[in-house]
Amino acid sequence: MFTRTQKLIICLCVVGVVAVLWVRPMVGFRTIPPVRRGDGNTAAQIPDILTLHYHQRAPYYFAEGSRVAGLVAGLVDAALTSAGVPFRWEQTPPKRQLEILKADKGLHCAVGWFYTPQRATFAAFSIPVYQDRPLVAAFRKADADKIRYDSVEALLADRSLTLLVRDGYSYGQFLDEMIEHHAPPQVLAGVDTDAMLRMIVAGRADYMFLTPEELSAVALAGSLFREALASEEFADMPAGNTRYLLFNRSADYATVARVNAAIEAELARRGIVFHHD
Predict the structure, then answer these.
(1) Backbone angles phi, psi at 193, to 5 degrees
(2) How many domains would you assign to the chain?
(3) What pTM was computed for the model?
């Protein structure tokens, strides 16, 4: 038989075990096993493989054989590989990328997006990974006499011209607000930049905004754009928009911090500095 003291000790032990099992899920305590990359590097404290979502948008991100390349994708790939962060690329339509982040399941990242207050309600942003050159307007060479403005505001105020915009996209705070303010006639498109420029050539709209990087990429791809299109810079267009990685909200803080450190190191290695007005 147990003595009174022994019975008391046994009771306290049982209560203690039950308390630990009850409290542990509440405080989120968990042990994260190390994950081994295919190249043999061990990445500790990374609970899942990070899925990087991209869509075909040269020259920022595009499939090139079995790899993903581009001004943004190439830098991100190099940064995470160098840091030993386990990741994989997945081609995903833009709208679907945002839906995945909102669903907030697993460890996901949408690559190369602009910051907007609305996106910040469901996504965590990395440090900047790339800064675009200032946006330009693309239009038919035959209409060059119509696109004679040296300011964005004057162009958008001309209601005889129709603006082509990509549905669901942000052009950055400056241009988004300017378009909303002037509300020019618009045509919404759910296609990529190449197809949108073909719409301009076909006369389905008069002009669209894009970066010089994109315009150069599509112009190099075929004579149609070189022969039919022109572009215009604007004195009031601010410095280019910065692009970020967007993580779903439940992404592990240690993972986001490690990715940021990897990007910062790769930017420094390449001597890249972002400039803002």
Answers:
(1) -60, -45
(2) 2
(3) 0.75
